[in-house]
Design goal:
The complex is a heterodimer of chains A (85) and B (187).
Chain A: H1 5-16, H2 22-34, H3 36-53, H4 62-72
Chain B: H1 11-30, H2 33-49, H3 60-78, H4 114-130, H5 133-144, H6 149-156, H7 160-186
Helix pairs in contact in B: 1-2, 1-3, 1-5, 2-3, 5-7, 6-7
Classes of the chains: A mainly alpha (85), B mainly alpha (187).
Bound molecules: zinc ion.
Zinc ion (ZN) is lined by residues 5, 8, 31, 35, 37-38 of chain A.
Amino acid sequence: MNVTCKQVAELLADYLNEELESEQKNLLDWHLCGCVPCKIYLVQYREVIITCRKLPDAPLPTEFSSRLAKLLGCKEPPPQEPPTE
Amino acid sequence: MATTADLELTPDRVFREYAPRVYNLARRMLGNDSDAEDVTQDVLLQVVRKLDTFRGEAAFPTWLHRVTVNAALAHRRKRARREEGRVADPLDNFDNDGHHVGHVRPWPSNPESNVLASEQAELIDKTIQTLPDIYREVFVLADIEQLPNSEIAELLELSVPAVKSRLHRARLMMRDALSHHFEERKS
Ligand SMILES: [Zn+2]
């Protein structure tokens, strides 16, 4: 009994969440030991999750920021660079 | 009648401290800048009108988060269906024997420089926008906003297994798209 690369890809979420039954987990461990592409694939899958966890918020677009400030009746100018002419 | 309490929720403070959060959440959920502006505007106007009813600030961020998610979902339901680019099924990248088709190459290693980190964030944001609606919503709520699957299931009126399966599919799509990006950049 063996798993294919495709099956590894299908099971990655459960594998990382440690939700696989031990027999299945062992099969994946075994496959990942010997398969470089799957190892890279797993690292990248995990990297997507990790990077997105700390994704920073971009500032508001300048034009929208001033429109919104006006609409909300804010006295302060938006904390952005001065408009360029 | 200006009070001097530093921590009082004022429109200025809401604008300064919370507008980017609302905007980015809406933009990621809707995959589109102008829809995100509409939602941000609606949500913040609603918030500013209700500010005096908000005494305890501790609950404010959570409340604002929920209001924004709901507003974004409502906005998507009422807008016309977007023309979505076709995103290949990640599981089509395997042949009949279940082997990877083509090479799986490592990504360029994560540089420490802040400039490149912000470039990477931009790339991720752009890639999220290419996901089809039903995958993007789940992905944003789970992997960016860190909501538990059960809460996402409730918000989107899906079963928990459906949330899990969409989330997994979305991550595979993200991985494919990023790999594709790095391959193209190299050539
Ligand atoms: Zn493999």
